[in-house]
Each structure stands twice: as C-alpha cells, then as structure tokens.
Design goal:
Number of domains: 4
Largest sheet: 8 strands, mixed
Strand content: 5-15%
Bound molecules: adenosine-5'-triphosphate, magnesium ion
CATH architecture of the largest domain: 2-Layer Sandwich
CATH superfamily of the largest domain: Beta Polymerase, domain 2
Shape: elongated
CATH topology of the largest domain: Beta Polymerase, domain 2
Radius of gyration: 28 Å
Structural class: alpha+beta
Number of helices: 21
CATH class of the largest domain: Alpha Beta
Distance between the termini: 91 Å
Number of strands: 10
C-alpha cells in the first residue's frame, strides 16, 4: 500500500486533559500489546500541518461503534450516538465534544449518502475521504500517516480530491461545495482544470442536496477571510447560480469584504455577505426557502435586502437617525456597507464613513410616551391611537430625540386636539 509516514511534533492540543481522557477511553494509550490504533483525523490534523489553529477534534478508530460506546461508558464519559449508521459517536468530555468515527469504506453511494461497511484498514478509510489534505491521520505518539500526498498539498494550499474528481463528486455532490469551501479557506494554489471541469459537468447533481446542507456549506464558505476567488470560480463553473438564484455579479462582495476589513475590522456576517452576492431585485423570501433559513435569518435577510430605507451618500442626518431608531445600529451599518459596496467606483468614502461612524456611536433612544398616554387623553382605542403615536414619534425624531416626556406629552395633547378638530 502506498503512503508515507512522517514524525510530527506533539502539539499542545493533543495532550490536553480532555483529549487524554478520550484517548485513554478508546484504548489508544494502552500497553503495546493491547493498544488500539485510534488516531486524530480531519480538520485538526490538516490545520496542524498548515500551522493553523485547531478547532474541533475528530478521531477515528478500528473498533466498531458498539465497542466505542462501551469503552466511553466504562471510562465514565458521555457518549451520544449522533450518526450511528455512519459509525459516528460524539464523546462529551469536560464540556468539549469529540467526534469519533469507526474506520469505514463507503459502498453504494447515491450522490449524497453512502452505505457504510466498517473496516480495520486505515488505508480504506483514507480512500473514502474527500481531499488529500483531509485524508491525513495522526497517531497520538506523533506519527502522521499520509496515503495521498496530503502533507505536501496542505503546505502548498492545494485542494485536491482523493481519486478521480468526477467519481468522487458523483458519489456525493456535497463535495462540490466542500471543494470550494476548503479552497476559500485554505487554497493558495489554483484548482486544477480537470477538477473544475468535473464540477461544471456535475452541477445538476446539486439539486439532490437539502437546503440545510447547502446553507451550511455556503455560510462557512462566505465566512472565509477572502471568499472572492472561490466564489468567482464557482460562478465560472455554474455552481453558484445553481445554489443561489441570480448570483453571479461579485463586485459588491469583493468590496464589502474590503470595507469590513478597513472599517474597524468588523466581524464578517455571512448573511450580509450573502446579500452582497444577490442581484438587486432578488426575492429574499425565495432564497430563504431554498436555503431553509431559520425565521430569524429569514427576517434579517429580508431586512438587509429591502429597498427602503435608502441609505446612500445623499442620506441626510434626519433620515439616518430615523433609520437607526427604527432598525437599530447593527442592521443600519450592514445596510450602509452593502449600499457602499454597490456604489460607483471612485466615489468619495467620507459620507459612507460618516454614516458608519454615526451607527457605531448610536445610543438607542426610548420613545417616552405610549398608547396608555393617548387613551388617557380620551382617544378611543382603535387605529387613531397608533396614528397619533406615529405622528408624535416622527416629530420627536425630527427634534433630535431631545424633548423630554413632558415635552412629548404636551405635543401629544396638541396632536389629539387637532385630530378631534378634524373629526
Ligand atoms: P472543519 O474544520 O470544517 O471541521 P473538517 O475537515 O474537520 O473541517 P468535517 O466536515 O468535520 O471537516 O469532516 C471531517 C472529515 O471527514 C473531513 O476532513 C473528511 O476527511 C471527512 N469528510 C467529511 N465530509 C465528507 C464528505 N462529504 N466526503 C468525504 N469525506 C468527508
Ligand atoms: Mg471537523
């Protein structure tokens, strides 16, 4: 069997208390004769090779899932069988989660789900993984196993399928999206032509994926520090249009990412970035349906993409204050960034920066009167109450939120009298 072994320095994440407890439970620290060959796999190994921080830690082991559960139980660790049919068990240790998967080979893939057979052969397990940089495994003693040239690829930022791209894509079309997601995060060398051609030839298969999975991948991709290059390749291959109707003009997201970085290093917001790749007349509700967004995300996407209020370089201070009061600062600053990223090239930055500064400095104001005050003045409950309140609130906004409760009550009284005169 091909493949190389490297000696790797033991990284601090490999020996934390929680990791040691899991390894001990799995039998990976037993004496040489009964030791189980459990190893770290997935993103933790890839990121270590690339010198990047390690997030969640995935492990794989030759033991079958029932045995893994047994071992975790005996060690007093909580086991959650989240994906038992694929051999995956979550171990909860000191508030951390570890995904433990039995070595497997995939048989009978239908384009998304594979029928799974367990194996004790690490080479078979490496072969079913998606990319060479994701097919590494690292033994707790620091021996790193690399069957497919993943170390060299990881170091060069080369995202490459294990095996023939078209075959691997047809087993599981999600891999098209994973390809561009990993490329967005880790790609430094260009994707090769046969890989891109295989994506283009198989875009139709994306229709088999659930909206939730597409959303998950898209959100992770959009949150990459600089997703523009990956998005451009996706658009080129016809992938982007397939998952986000009408997407393709990437000028705005390119500028948005740049502005986010310039303007006080704002945390990227994946929905705002999504809004930036939508065409101006996009139907946010339809996009939300396709991606199965949560109600909160659906509402936020709608609020980000609505035409009104127009916040552009001509917006006067009163208009901006009104928007801040009604929508809140986070939404307003995202809308300003979006509008700015769609503005003509070479426009002066100062008016946009001023709006962002106003949003950052915004202290929420509370309108000091309510329905009860209107009723107390003798207005019958009904639409007139809301109408009067809205008019008075508009006056209060126009007065710079300055009038106190007494001042607003005074104005309210006048307004009610006016309504009565008109009635
Ligand atoms: P992340 O940092 O996003 O967690 P990861 O590489 O750990 O990256 P996961 O989705 O957690 O990604 O998957 C763990 C590992 O399982 C991957 O590194 C890869 O080896 C394998 N894998 C996951 N999904 C697939 C898939 N659809 N096809 C093939 N292998 C996969
Ligand atoms: Mg992972």
């Amino acid at each position: 069997m091909p493949g190389s072994e490297h000696r790797w320095p033991i990284a601090p994440w490999m020996t934390t208390g929680a990791v040691t407890r899991v390894l001990r439970a799995l039998g990976a620290l037993d004496g040489p004769n009964e030791r189980v060959d459990a190893r770290f796999v997935g993103g933790a190994v890839r990121n270590t090779v690339m010198g990047l921080p390690v997030g969640e830690i995935d492990l794989a082991t030759p033991d079958i899932p029932a045995k893994v559960i047994d071992r975790l139980d005996s060690a007093g660790l909580k086991a959650v069988p989240t994906g038992l049919e694929h051999g995956t068990i979550l171990a909860l240790v000191d508030g951390e989660t570890f995904e433990i998967t039995t070595l497997r080979r995939d048989t009978a893939c239908d384009g998304r789900h594979a029928a799974v057979e367990f194996t004790t052969d690490w080479h078979e397990d490496a072969r079913r993984r998606d990319f060479t940089m994701n097919a590494l495994s690292l033994r707790p003693d620091g021996v790193l196993f690399d069957d497919h040239g993943g170390v060299a690829d990881a170091r060069a930022g080369r995202v490459r399928f294990v095996g023939a791209p078209a075959d691997r894509i047809q087993e599981d079309y999600l891999r098209i999206l994973r390809l561009f997601r990993f490329y967005a995060w880790y790609g430094r060398a260009p994707l090769d032509a046969p890989t891109l051609a295989a994506c283009r030839a198989n875009v139709g298969g994306l229709g088999r994926l659930s909206g939730e999975r597409i959303k998950q991948e898209l959100a992770k991709l959009l949150l990459a520090p600089a997703p523009y290059g990956a998005l451009a390749l996706m658009a080129d291959a016809g992938v982007l249009q397939q998952i986000v109707a009408g997407a393709g003009d990437l000028r705005a997201i390119n500028r948005l990412v740049e502005f986010e970085q310039d303007e006080r290093h704002r945390e990227p917001d994946w929905l705002c970035r999504l809004a930036a790749i939508l065409p101006p007349a996009a139907d946010a509700g339809e996009i939300a349906d396709c991606l199965r967004l949560s109600n909160a995300d659906r509402e936020r996407l709608a609020a980000l993409t609505k035409v009104e209020p127009v916040l552009d370089e001509h917006a006067d201070p009163l208009h901006l204050r009104r928007a801040l009061h009604r929508l809140g600062a986070p939404l307003v600053s995202n809308r300003v960034l979006l509008a700015w990223s769609r503005a003509k090239d070479g426009e002066p930055a100062a008016p946009w920066r001023a709006m962002l500064a106003a949003a950052a400095a915004w202290v929420p104001k509370t309108f000091p009167v309510g329905g009860a005050d209107v009723l107390a003045l003798g207005v019958k409950s009904g639409p007139a109450v809301g109408r009067v309140l809205a008019a008075v609130e508009e006056w209060w906004i126009g007065a710079g939120f300055e009038p106190s409760r007494d001042g607003v009550l005074e104005h309210l009284k006048q307004r009610v009298e006016l309504e009565e005169d008109q009635a």
